Hints:
The complex is a heterodimer.
Chain A: H1 2-37, H2 41-44, H3 59-66, H4 70-101, H5 107-119, H6 126-135, H7 142-165, H8 171-178, H9 183-194, H10 196-212, H11 215-220, H12 229-239, H13 244-264, H14 266-270, H15 273-276
Helix pairs in contact in A: 1-13, 3-13, 4-7, 4-10, 5-7, 7-10, 12-13
Chain B: H1 2-10, H2 13-45, E1 48-49, E2 59-60, H3 64-71, H4 73-105, H5 111-123, H6 126-136, H7 143-151, H8 169-192, H9 197-205, H10 210-221, H11 223-238, H12 242-247, H13 259-268, H14 273-298
Antiparallel strand pairs in B: 1-2
Helix pairs in contact in B: 3-14, 4-8, 4-11, 5-8, 6-8, 11-14, 13-14
Amino acid sequence: xxxxLSGRLLGSALRYLVLIGGAAVMVLPFLWMVSxxxxxxxxxxxxxxxxxxxxxxxxxxxxAWTAGNFQLYFKNSLIVAVSSVVxxxxxxxxxxxxxxxxxxxxxxxLFFGILLILMVPxxxxxxxxxxxxxxxxxxxxxxxxxxFYVATSLPLNTFLLRGFFETLPRELExxxxxxxxxxxxxxxxxxxPLSAPALATVSIFSLLGxxxxxxxxxxxxxxxxxxxxxxxxxxFHGQHGTDWGLVFAASLIAMIPIVLLYAALxxxxxxxxxxxxxxx
Amino acid sequence: MGKQGLQARSGSRARQMNAAFTFLLPGVFLFLVFxxxxxxxxxxxxxxxxxxxxxxxxxFVGLANYLxxxxxxVVSLAFxxxxxxxxxxxxxxxxxxxxxxxxxxxxxxxxVLLRTLYYLPVITSWVIVSLLFRYMFQSPNGFIxxxxxxxxxxxxxPIGWLxxxxxxxxxxxxxxxxxxxxxxxxxxxxxxxxxxxxxYEAAAIDGAGGWEKVRHITLPLIRPTLVFVLVMLMIGxxxxxxxxxxxxxxxxxxxxxxxxxxxxxxxxxxxxxxxGSALAxxxxxxxVSLSFIQIRFFRRPEEVY
Lengths: 280, 305
């Protein structure tokens, strides 16, 4: 009996050991980034490297935040990401509701198109998208970037929300119809509020995607004043070559909104919506 | 009341069509203009020697861009690199994520904290983690070299990771696996929680060990989730672009190009829009057909919906 028990304890200790070791591998690069950002330029190429800086300083953060247009880039990112999320979730929810509740001609074809776009690489359309933005005068415009973001996020969001809407009971909706409500009041007063958790999940993942989006922003925007953070950070790296402390200080500032969001809304990140979308 | 009530219950057909149309309008408009049109336009451009000069007409060249792609040695190299990236990072992510999920699921304490830490790379931007890996794999004074040479004595001299074609993809693979584990793990965890505990208890009574339980209960029951993750990761792997663009950018000497970075360079560095579109289109056809085959192949008849 004692042997079985100690065997269990050993097994349990081993599990913790393996998992904590794994977690260390996941986190170490971030610690290394933080550590580098706290070192003044001269100490960055120190050898052997020290994880805990001898003289930690916030100079890199001050410089990153005040240098050049960083605050402007931060603002640009915020404007584009937030407005894209609002529009994308609203428009996707409307489409998803139409798919979940109505039969209309072309439904199958349209849904097939959405699935197809989901599978096709995002990048495949980058050349025509660039030409399209040029033709429509949407280059170097945050509004243009937003339109592209909303459009590229529609297929996945519609797909996920359709799955969720189909699980909502129809009886309430029918009762509202009999009481003289229109489909729009049903959508706004009932479907959307009942779907708050699903909408939150979709919003968060869209926000993450928009906050990090790099290729479209790089391709469609040349004007430095209209840059968003990912492009700015990548070019920061180019300009400041080896000044990693500054690059990582800027990166960490860019990560703050996401980390805060993650800390506050963790259950939506790790909830089962993406898993549940696939009928298991 | 009877007739009216019935009609209101289903809503009249015209009323339904009106509503459906209005709900669909903005989304379908954006979808057609920004998703479908570019896809078709890419197909068209791929048959042309596309001219960017206003006033200079683009020349129709038929399949010339596709033939060029088939003969281009960099394309076959890039294709190999793409497939290799997928072949390494997809099993790597799935095995490690599954192991982490199974272990985490059996824990009492620390579960939430550990899950949070494993998920951290998932929510961090590709740009940031790519720069970070590039920094860590620097030579000779990067952190990884310090770890291998000075701390663990696994290597005799610093390795020039990004300078040599034979090692430059290693940081990219590791980055792909490291960043992706948390995503699959969370999905596996959600699936594991749907398995009734009684099944394990019954198996334990029948004398099944830990591994046998995993093989005969866990894996068969979460099979649909496993297939879903596999298909998603394969599509993601074949679409690899950012980590390559930001860590190696195809270098040294185009040796680490993947199909999409090569396409992007052809299009936006050399303004070969026709050739770039042909490359993009070939890749898209490849990925979509592979996904369909995979879904057909892995899904049992009762799982088709």
